[in-house]
């Protein structure tokens, strides 16, 4: 009886520790989203200020004048703090929880862009932010429990699975094609190119960050030294190379394109590829119900980011008119007048507002 009781107590303590560990990871991921979301806007202001100076080559054209701009360095510091918190979060919580929480950075950057950069955030942008947060909650509340790995060698063996090697090869081939085979004029006119490079490299950096974070956690918190294994340093080199590459192409994307375009598109592509890479490298058992809920949550996030993107430049009056046209029948294209019964009256417009 005493033995059974001790086993139950041990299991309860283990579950409690696991729950508190995941909660701590979620808190780290949320703070990371705030710092990263703010960094987008601060760095954008720094890039704009550096590019406005006479005789300075913009980052989008290959220049590095922003390195002499203090505001850009403040943004970089915010990003470093955010990435550090994000890195730590992967050591305490599953990637399928941590990565979707990046949706909060979209909300932060959208609000700050509206306040500091005067980039419009209309009512549909607000709705998009709400959808992002709602979808994130759905993913977090139904995420699987993470399978514990005993050493960095086990993590390395996970990375050597044929399915993950195939993914990594496809990812690197795609990045090579985007950087070296796509003409420069297309790279600088199509936001998808730079965002895709950042997202693909980012998916590989996340699985490496998680491996490195777990190794450090086992070394300093579990008294199991993982620094003696060469695999730890391989993961470290991958993380450094990936972060430098992401930073370079993200700067180019932010300099050439609207923040309201870059941030949502980067989030959707990065999160999708990261979930795929994490699922391949760190497979977890889940119920069908949880999987369906997670997919629905992620689709909700995608809808929110797309809504932010599609309506970012639309004037409030145009949005009002478009909604009423759809509801009430629209205008006659030949006369430009509302069709019978389609024009909203004053009472309806006040109710709508």
Characterization of this structure:
- With 353 residues, the chain is an all-alpha fold.
- 75% of the residues lie in helices and 0% in strands.
- Helix 11 packs antiparallel against helix 12.
Quick structural gist:
With 353 residues, the chain is mainly α. The protein is 75% helix and 0% strand.
Short descriptors:
disordered N terminus; mainly alpha; 353 residues
Topology:
Layout: H1 2-51, H2 70-92, H3 95-98, H4 103-116, H5 123-141, H6 152-159, H7 162-181, H8 184-187, H9 191-220, H10 230-256, H11 259-281, H12 288-310, H13 316-328, H14 346-352
Helix pairs in contact: 1-2, 1-4, 2-9, 4-5, 4-11, 5-12, 7-9, 9-10, 9-11, 11-12
Helix count, DSSP H or I runs of 4 or more residues = 14
Summed up, the domain count is 2
N-to-C span:
67 Å
- Dominant shape: globular
Instruction: Give the radius of gyration.
Output: 23 Å
Low-confidence stretches: 1-14, 338-353
Give the % helix: over 70%
- Outline the biggest β-sheet: none
Q: Strand percentage, roughly? A: under 5%
Number of strands: 0
């Amino acid at each position: 009886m005493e033995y059974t009781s001790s086993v139950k107590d041990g299991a309860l303590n283990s579950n409690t520790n696991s729950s508190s560990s995941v909660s701590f990871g979620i808190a780290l991921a949320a703070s990371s989203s705030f710092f990263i979301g703010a960094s987008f806007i601060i760095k954008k202001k720094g890039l704009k200020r550096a590019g406005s100076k006479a005789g300075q080559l913009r980052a989008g054209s290959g220049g590095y004048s922003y390195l002499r701009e203090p505001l850009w360095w403040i943004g970089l510091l915010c990003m470093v703090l955010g990435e550090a918190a994000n890195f730590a979060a992967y050591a305490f919580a599953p990637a399928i929880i941590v990565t979707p929480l990046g949706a909060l950075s979209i909300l932060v950057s959208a609000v700050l862009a509206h306040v500091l950069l005067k980039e419009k955030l209309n009512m549909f942008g607000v709705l998009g932010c709400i959808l992002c947060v709602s979808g994130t909650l759905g993913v977090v509340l139904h995420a699987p429990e993470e399978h514990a790995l005993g050493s960095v060698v086990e993590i390395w063996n996970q990375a050597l699975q044929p399915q993950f090697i195939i993914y990594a090869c496809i990812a690197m081939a795609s990045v090579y094609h985007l950087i070296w085979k796509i003409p420069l004029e297309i790279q600088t006119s199509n936001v998808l190119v730079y965002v895709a490079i950042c997202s693909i490299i980012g998916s590989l950096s996340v699985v490496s960050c998680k491996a490195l974070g777990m190794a450090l956690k086992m070394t300093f918190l579990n008294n199991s030294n993982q620094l003696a294994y060469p695999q730890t340093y391989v993961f470290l080199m991958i993380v450094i190379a990936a972060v430098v590459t992401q930073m370079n192409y993200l700067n180019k994307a932010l300099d050439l394109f609207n923040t309201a375009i870059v941030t949502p598109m980067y989030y959707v592509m990065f999160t999708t590829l990261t979930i795929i890479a994490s699922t391949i490298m760190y497979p977890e058992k889940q119920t069908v119900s949880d999987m369906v809920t997670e997919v629905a949550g992620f689709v909700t996030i995608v809808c929110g980011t797309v809504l932010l993107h599609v309506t970012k430049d639309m004037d409030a009056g145009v949005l009002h008119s478009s909604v009423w046209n759809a509801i009430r029948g629209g205008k006659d294209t030949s006369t430009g007048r509302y069709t019978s019964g389609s024009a909203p009256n004053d009472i309806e417009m006040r109710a709508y507002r």
